[in-house]
Structure of tRNA-specific 2-thiouridylase MnmA:
Amino acid sequence: MTDFPGAPDPSAPRDGRRLRVLAAMSGGVDSAVAAARAAEAGHEVTGVHLALSANPQSFRTGARGCCTIEDSRDARRAADVIGIPFYVWDLAERFREDVVEDFVAEYAAGRTPNPCLRCNEKIKFAALLDKALALGFDAVCTGHYATVVTRDDGSRELHRASDLAKDQSYVLGVLDDRQLAHAMFPLGDTLTTKGEIRAEAERRDLAVAKKPDSHDICFIADGDTQGFLAKRLGMAEGDIVDEDGAKLGTHEGAYGFTIGQRKGLRLGVPAADGKPRYVLDISPVNNTVTVGPADALDITALTAIKPRWCGTPPSGPGTYTAQLRAHGSETAVAAELVDDALKVSFTEPVRGVAPGQAIVLYDGTRVVGSATIAQTERRAPARLA
Ligand SMILES: Nc1ncnc2c1ncn2[C@@H]1O[C@H](COP(=O)(O)OP(=O)(O)OP(=O)(O)O)[C@@H](O)[C@H]1O
């Protein structure tokens, strides 16, 4: 017996090509079409919706959050139309511990985490995948836009999606070979735009065809990250200072800021040069936020920790392109693994990089690996003679 209904019948015949696939169905259009494509390709597909919120009703705000009862119903209806079995699995406690609490703790420590990346690493391709494999499934299928390529030797590569505008390889950059070997992304292989996916959903009679896209942080349905953090971390008034430590204003919680932020500083003292000020540093220890001019945001190098590789780690220094945020552009870097830390230098300075963000390295369209930014190095400030 199992707590997770929907396990395939172990006595059922299997052939090498017809995989037993667990389709992760959020109740949105992408995962519905992905599940339909996997079933159409001849795989034995079972749909599963993950209940990730302990209190799904609390997310019903009108904006689309995640894992509401409506979402689970939408996923079930889509599974019915596709003609596959469907189950709801409760991973709310794991999600709370591994994603939500980590998110709060990272902000409290003055860092800027990416919860989607964390969810892929800890929930979808760990808790969910492990459970799926233990139950006899061969693969987990999601509606992510990314491509898995199998090399001649059987190992896997993760590549950007064919549709670069929708590419989600950045948030999947934490996956290793084993996880990739059991991942299926039916949307990433084809050059289909989101509009075409919606049209395909309509052709397939999937009621979610017109459902709005989910927004970035699924457990903050109204999009008010600062409000969410304030509720969790409380208010803690502190100083906003300039690079020399002179007080320019006050704030109500250092966690409410991100590096590179300009809006909402409400400085009492205008900058001497009249130019706008940006958040340069957040110090939870002193509860201070340091601000300065835009060019002080330029980063020339960084150190990133906890590297994860899609394949064998690079044995020496190499040149790559790097992406530093989910919808960011690529930038040229040189990178080297030194004592388990990734040392990265940028060909051109980049602006507004925050500790806690992930850096994902690419070789062309291939994801090489990822790591968490721990320290950044600024260009030496220009001094007046
Ligand atoms: N609550 C959930 N239950 C099951 N699978 C989920 C859930 N949330 C997300 N997923 C899976 O992770 C994928 C990527 O999640 P993301 O939040 O980026 O969704 P999306 O791109 O808006 O896709 P969708 O349109 O399917 O919601 C989804 O396509 C789906 O396969």
